[in-house]
TrEMBL record:
Name by which UniProt lists this protein: Acid phosphatase
The protein's role, per its UniProt record: May function as somatic storage protein during early seedling development.
Gene3D superfamilies xref list: HAD superfamily/HAD-like
SUPFAM superfamilies: HAD-like
Length: 229
């Protein structure tokens, strides 16, 4: 792409535009990032801009949370996704092309089993602020139920010490072959049927915040590395 009267080339503008399309949910169902955008995406997620973008989302979420009138009965909850929301898998993706390589379930499971993913700092701040307000946190993740122990270990390692529950996906039963939107909508519905009030919902994927039983406000964190339907 070119800009200005002289038609000067702007480095990486095409990758920047691609990322905008991803975040706006205009580019969907993609399997890997463009090969030529590996450097751009890597620089973004390892740099200050990613942190600033994440901070803009979480600060807006906290501002919204402070405006709420809570029930005071312990039933107000905020739903958090885990990967690229509560936890950051950048140490893994730095070794796998920041999304250039196709998703490898076995390799990612080996990483997740270590239980050492750091927190996304901005999300951990939001988590603390919400719990200080009296809002309980529920973690709802597409991770397999078989990763429960390592996920619990990792959440505590990352500083998420108090939360209401952790919901993982059992792929061998009702959700086999179903989309993440279907799975997460169903689990949020179950939470509400059990008397909880979902007052907020945050995730890095559109599939975290689309569907039903999402509450009035949802918050999308940036993630140009992968797409989940």
């Amino acid at each position: 792409l070119k800009s200005g009267l002289g038609g000067h080339y702007i480095p990486e503008t095409s990758c920047s535009s691609w990322r905008l399309g991803v975040e706006a949910h205009n580019i969907i169902d993609w399997k890997t990032i463009p090969q030529e955008c590996e450097g751009y995406v890597g620089n973004y997620v390892l740099g200050e801009r990613y942190r600033e973008d994440s901070r803009a989302v979480t600060e807006e979420a906290y501002k919204y949370a402070k405006s709420l009138t809570l029930g005071g009965d312990g039933k107000d909850i905020w739903v958090f996704d885990i990967d690229e929301t509560a936890l950051s898998n950048l140490p893994y993706y730095a070794q796998h092309g920041f999304g250039v390589e196709p998703y490898n379930r076995t390799a990612f499971r080996e990483w997740a089993d270590l239980g050492i993913a750091p927190p996304l700092p901005e999300t951990r701040i939001l988590y603390k602020n919400l719990t200080d307000l009296g809002i309980k946190v529920v973690f709802l993740t597409g991770r397999s139920e078989s990763l429960r122990d390592s996920t619990l270990k990792n959440l505590k390692y990352a500083g998420y010490l108090n939360f209401e529950t952790l919901i993982l996906k059992n792929n061998s039963t009702e959700y086999k072959g179903k989309t993440a939107v279907t799975y997460k909508s169903s689990e949020r519905k179950k939470l509400e049927e059990n008397g909880y009030r979902i007052v907020g919902n945050i995730g890095d994927q559109w599939s975290d915040i689309l569907g039903t039983n999402t509450d009035n406000r949802t918050f999308k964190l940036p993630d140009p590395m992968y797409y989940i339907t």
